[in-house]
Write a structure and sequence with these properties.
Order of helices and strands: HEEHEH
Shape: globular
Low-confidence stretches: 5-10, 12-20
Number of strands: 3
Keywords: Signal
Organism: Roseobacter ponti
Radius of gyration: 21 Å
Number of domains: 1
Protein name: Lipoprotein
Distance between the termini: 58 Å
Largest sheet: 3 strands, antiparallel
Helix content: 25-40%
Strand order of the largest sheet: 2-1-3
Number of helices: 3
Length: 95
């Protein structure tokens, strides 16, 4: 009986343990505005590391500010942020 009680306590503890937080995901992209034509390269945080999801999220965010998403270049984790910061300039984590 004592072993069953211990098993129940351990199983409950494992079931209630916090789920690991998913790693942050980012996407780099290219966007444009018309009249006059303006282009920019940017980096943004996205909810999942999947290019289709990143594209959907970025299209909505950029559109709200008058930009048109041209393409998602890539999706990556935090390890790729530093190397893209300078290239993105003012559009680094802006949208």
């Amino acid at each position: 009986m004592r072993h069953i009680a211990l098993f129940v306590v351990l199983a409950t503890g494992i079931a209630l343990a916090p789920v690991a937080v998913a790693a942050a995901c980012y996407a780099d992209y290219k966007a444009k505005q018309d009249n006059p034509l303006r282009l920019h390269y940017g980096v943004a945080e996205v909810s999942q590391c999947a290019s289709g999801i990143a594209e959907t999220e970025l299209r909505a965010r950029l559109s709200a500010s008058g930009w048109t998403l041209l393409n998602v270049v890539s999706v990556f984790d935090e390890s790729g942020l530093a190397e893209r910061k300078e290239s993105a300039g003012p559009y680094y984590l802006r949208f």
